[in-house]
Amino acid sequence: MKQKRLLRLSLGWRIVLGLVLGLIVGALFYQNKMAIAILNPIGTIFINLIKMIVLPIVVSCLVVGIAKMGDIKKLGRVGGKTLIYFEIMTTIAIALGLIVGNLTKPGDTINIQTLSKVSISQYTATAKTASNHGLADIIMNIVPTNFFDALGKGDMIPVIFFTVMFGLGIAAIGKRGQVLTDFFEATSEVMFKMTNWIMQLAPIGVFALIGVTIAQFGLSALKPLALFLLIAYATMIVFVVVVMGLVARLFHLNIFDLLRVIKDEMVLAFSTASSEAALPRIMEKMPRYGVSQGIASFVIPTGYTFNLDGSAIYQSLAALFLAQAYHIHLSIGQQITLLVVLMITSKGMAGVPGASFVVLLATITTIGVPASGLAFIAGIDRLVDMGRTAVNVVGNSLAALIIAKSEHEFDENKQQAYLAAIKHAPAVKSH
């Protein structure tokens, strides 16, 4: 009976169980090479399964959404609103990180002589390349020279640009384009079905990913940086509850309702430290929650690159933390410069592996912090990454709701029905 009940647990609870078991196993097998060698491929396979379906879902949903929207003026208005909203929220997030860093001064308690000997060479080449990319380069890279090359590399923004143009082309030819709309609509349904299958493996993937992280670094890695970790998470919580909460209220939304709706996706993003893991489910869930398909299909994938609120908080807070640890005093002018630099570099590097860490590596030298200083927080980067990824998922979900509200494309009846279904849903599956 207990086994049957365990199998009937909702996906969210099974992911939490995988997370807890991963922590325990990782702690028990700390620095055990065999355990790491066994767990690492399992976690990697799960993340690869997610990556496999992300771009097909984005392309199919976006083509259908744009084709049904069918109005280039409306698309331009939605795109303008979306990018302005993203820039405002990212700026607030960076500013909040700087304010908290100045008030709490977490770096003052650190003895930099205890610097960890963690290699950051894997990020150096990427940081050098990305730091040379100005705003003009970012804009130029929006247009792909080869769509299939961009698709193969996983470059989200060029893929979105082509897909939007393709969707508008379908809308422009009228009834003759209906066959393509039907094809991509069927494709999106197939991809969501695949998503549901892959998500059943999420607890195992989460177990392996957390297990590897703890087995490699150990719980002891938290001790010297516990204050920074605590401040980073507290700042992220304040941003979600207060800043996002106020923004949601301005549009007659409740942030806690949204958190209840996407709680499983937040746990998944947190435990895998991958926004991609939650992206397919968010894109499926937001239209069911009342957001029009066109808005959801455009805003959420775009936010994957341009709206990383959790990462923005971490980058500004970590930059100040390292400056304080090296006893480097930053004037107001220098901190404003840092804010602007982070705003630009974070947009140019959002698609690279370890993006937040690379952003820091490319920007801290502008404030006089040696690049080797990042080795000090490299050991806990994964642990902070879990929190900032969850915040990124919340931020993009809220963005879809707000843009839909502003365009009067938010179905409140769907919203209320969805909330009622969640409220009365049992803790275990009914089937």
TrEMBL record:
Compartments in which it is found: Cell membrane
Residues in the signal sequence: none
Domain of life, source organism: Bacteria
Coiled coil: none
Keywords: Cell membrane, Membrane, Symport, Transmembrane, Transmembrane helix, Transport
UniProt KW Transmembrane helix keyword: yes
Membrane topology of this protein: Multi-pass membrane protein
TM stretches of this protein: 12-30, 42-70, 82-101, 156-174, 195-219, 225-251, 289-306, 326-345, 357-380
Protein name: Cation:dicarboxylate symporter family transporter
Organism ancestry: Bacteria, Bacillati, Bacillota, Bacilli, Lactobacillales
